[in-house]
User: Fold these one by one.
Assistant:
Number 1:
Amino acid sequence: MRTIQVTVKPNARASDLEEREDGTWLARLKAPPVDGKANAELVALIARRFGQPRSRVSIKRGTTGRVKIVTVDDRQR
C-alpha cells in the first residue's frame, strides 16, 4: 500500500502527474472541479502512472480540496 500527497490544479491545458523534490506530487488535470470530474480524472491518472486498475486507487482525504491524500494498493494478490 502506497500513500501519496497530491496537489491538484484543475482546468489545465493537458493532464499530467509529476513528483516533486519533497516527495509530494503535482497533478495538472484538464477536467474542471465540478461533479467529481477532476477527482475521477485524478484517480485514472494515478492508476495509469502506477500500473494499477482504478479500483485500487482511492482518495482518502481532501475530496473537496486541492491537496489530497491518495492511496494506491500495489500489493500482489
Note: The mean pLDDT is 95.
Number 2:
Amino acid sequence: MHFTYKGIWKAIENGPFIPQVKKYDVFVDKPPSEWTEVDSKKAKFDWIAKNIIISTLICDEFVRVSQCTSAKEMLDILEVTHEGTNDVKRARKHALIQEYELFRM
C-alpha cells in the first residue's frame, strides 16, 4: 500500500479528512458512496495514523485512547497525560527556573 507520511501527519495535526461538497452555498459531508478514489485515500490517513499510534502503546495507554474517534484526539489525550496542560507545563518550567536560580546562589 502506498501512502505519504505527510498525509498521515496532516491527519494527526488537523483531524480526519472528511470529503465535502457545496450545496446551497453550504459545505456538507459527502456520503461515502460519492467519494472519489482520492477522497478515499485521504480518509484512510486517519485510520493508518490510529493504527500506528495503537501499535506503539502498552495496555494502560491503549485503554486511555480506545474510545477516541481520530488520531488527533488520541495524540491530544496522550500529550495531556504525559506532558500536562499548558498551565502545568508553564508551572513546571517556572519551578525549574527557580530551582536553577537557587542552585546558582
Note: DSSP finds five helices and two strands in the chain.
Number 3:
Amino acid sequence: MVIVVESPVARADIPALCARARCELEDGAGSHLVCDLSGLDEVDAVVVDALARVQLIVRRLGGTLELRGADVDLVALLAWMGLERVLRRVDDPPP
C-alpha cells in the first residue's frame, strides 16, 4: 500500500493524512505502508511531524512504515531531529 505525500503539507493536513493511513491498514490489504515522498518540494518540521504521527498509527495497528523518495534535505532533517531510525527509508537496511 502506498500513500503519496505532496507539497505543501500544513498542520491542518495531518489529520487527513493519518486517516488515510489508518484506512489503508484497516481495510485489510496488508500491514506494510509506504509513504511516497517524491512529490515534496519543501520539507520542514510539519512534514516530519506528519510522518511521525503516521508512524505511530501504523505501529499501533501492528504494521510497518517505510519512506520512499525522501530527498537529502528530508533525510538530513530526520537525522537532525533524531528520527532517522524511527522513520526508515526504503533504501535503508532493516533495523
Note: The chain is about 40% helix and 20% strand.
Number 4:
Amino acid sequence: MKKILCASTALVAAGMLTAGAASAAEKIKLNVGGYSKWWVVGAWQEKEFQNGANGTIGASANGGSAAGVQRQNVDVKGDNEVWFSGSTALDNGLKVGVMMSLEGGGHTDGVTDGIDNSYAWIEGGFGKVLIGAHANGTALLHVQAPDAASNFGNGGMMMGNWSITKPAGVMGMNQRVGYTTSSNTTAIISDDKAEKITYVAPSFYGLTLGASYIPNVSKTLWSGTSAVSSANNSFGGQHSRGAGSSGMGAFGGAAMYANTFGPVGVKASAGYVWVDLTATGGAENALTQQAYGAQLSYAGFTLGGSVQRASDDKKNGGVKSAVLAGTAQAGNYGGKGFLTNAAVSGTAGAELDFGGVAYDIGLQYASGPYAVSFAYFKSAVVGDTNLRMANSVANKDDTIEAYQASGKYNLGPGVDVLASVGYIEYTDQRYGTTSTVANNQYHNAGWTAMTGLSLAF
C-alpha cells in the first residue's frame, strides 16, 4: 500500500511539473453552504440501568454521575455545519480549491471540534489530491445500508449514542485515539479526520480508486489519557512510537464501483487500512481494518449492507508486553480492548486477540418527495482483555445491536421533514457474570422516537 501511494504521489508531482506555468485567472472566492438539522427526541431506557446501584445513571462506577441526576425522556438535539469552499482554474488546466466546515452546535456535548474538515485540493487529469483534515479514502468511498433520513450511522441521533445512554464499559467499532468513546458504523473512521494526504483516481467505467497516508492517526495529539507535551510536537510528533505512545502511522486504500444496467443500479466498495503499532525496541505489531459494502436499486427500492472487520497482526509469538502492556494503546484505534495489567498482559506467549466485527443491512423505498427505510446494525468487539482472560467472561464480547425505521418528506428545495423510530441495546462482556446490582451497570437498552427538520443551504 505504501508503494502504491508513493507511486501515485509521484505521478501527481510529475503532472504538475510538466503542466507549464501556473497562474490563477482570479483569486479564490469562498462560497457558503451547509445544513441545519434539528430533532425533538424521545428516549425510554431501562430503569435498572438508569437507577444503577445507587440511584445514579448507570452508577458512578460505570461512568454515571455521583450526584445521581436523572435524565429527561425528551430532548432537543441538532446537527449543524457551515461550509466554506472555493476553487479556481489555473492557466495550465489544473484546478485548486479549499474546503472548511464549521460545526454549528446542536449536540451540546462540549467536546465537538469547532472546525470539522479543513483541507486544500488539487485536481487534474491525474485525479484529485486532498491534503489536510478530512475523512480517509476508505470512508469517502464506503457504501453501506441506506437510510431515508440520513440518521442511521455515526452521525445519527440514536446510532451516535445521543439518545439511549451507552454503558461506559461497552466498546464499539472505530474508537477514536485518546478517547473511550466509539462509533456505530461500518465505515473506517478511527482516525477521526486526522491530518492526511488522500489521492482519488479518475473514475474509469464506474470504478474509482483512492488511497490515504496518515502520518499520525492521533488527531488531537494524545498519549494514553494525558495531553502530549509540546516537546513531543516536533517534526514527526508522536510518530516516534515510544512505549505507551498513541502516535501511530496508517495507510489505507479503497475502491468503489457504481453503474447502472438498464433499470438496475449497482454500487460496491472495498477498503483496507493498516496501522503501525510497533513501539521503539518492541515487538512488531499492527492493526488492520477491512470494510466492504454493496447496494442494489430497482424501481425505487434500494437494498444495501456493509461489514467492517478489525483485527491485530501479531508477531513474535503474540507477546504484547513490549508494546502494549500497561497502556491503552491497543484500545486507541479500531475499537480494540484495553491492556492495563502488565502482569497479565505481559505473560510470555499469551495469545491476546484484539478486534471486532460490525455489519448493517437496510432496505429503502423512495418515490417522488417520499422515502421510507428500515435498517439493522450489530457489532461485537473485544472489550477489556484482562477481563476476557478470566474464566467467567471467556470468549465474550461487548455487543451493540440496533434497529431503526426512518422516513423523509421533501417540502421544497433543501427542506425535508424527517422521522425515525428505533431500538438499541448495549451489552458489556461482564453482563451476567456478577451480582444483580452490578449487572445493572453493564447492560442498557431502549426505544427512541424522533422527528426533525433538515435545511440544506
Note: Residues 2-17 form the longest helix (16 residues).
